[in-house]
Amino acid sequence: MKNKELTLEEIKAVEFELLKKFHNTCQSNGFHYSLMGGTLLGAVRHKGFIPWDDDIDVIMPRPDYERFVEYCKANQTPFHLISVQTDEGYAYLFGKVTDPDTKLIETVGNRNKVELGVYIDIFIYDGMGNTEKEAKKNFNKSRFLRELLVAANWKRFFRSKTKAWYYEPIRFAFFVMSRFVSHKKLIKAIEKKYRDFDFYSNEYVGNLCSDKRDLSIIKRSEIDTYITLPFEGEEFSVFSGYKTYLTNMFGDYMQLPPEDKRVTHHMFSAYRREKANK
Question: What are the tens digits of pLDDT across the range 34-44?
């Protein structure tokens, strides 16, 4: 008998448990992180999930992310870390913390069929430069390669739910080119451009995988200290400059979007894993 597909609310419940486990691991080991994106917006505007949202995103400074990865490789954790450092076929620049008791099947992503459970994404802040102009220039150095890497993960071409129609020919061109490149070589080429950027020696930082691209660039001083905000009744870490971040990313972030924009964007199905009979 086929397992019943998890509902949106069940997926959120699994993600929330993952977030609590991730938070506890970071607290116990001194790893800095912050809620980000729609998760941070949800914490501020709704004190929890945005009602129509379907994921959890966090972000870590590069030094903390690298320490977190090494910790997960060396220790047993209540979740499974997937990253380019731990999984051969994984083809993203950021990591995922997944639930080992669930199985997730991507509709168009995960071309290399890395085994996934319900997950939360762990994005990374990298040093970008000492002026905003320099940071934007450095951020855009690898833009073409990053777009190619995104397309390299697609199993098939699909129409974007978030981009305007006139982007579709560009997206299709990246899809075609991506069939002829190695994700490993792409990742190596991208990382090479930023390997010499020391996080703490740069006044500006950015998230290379942000869907808002260089709007993610922010002064490091805005993310150097942390507070907590409530999310679904629990307290989680948020960098103190979260208002600057949210304004950069969303503009008037307390204003609700039009009703036709209040939709989920996920393209996957998730199930409970079969447990072996004892």
Answer: 999 999 999 99
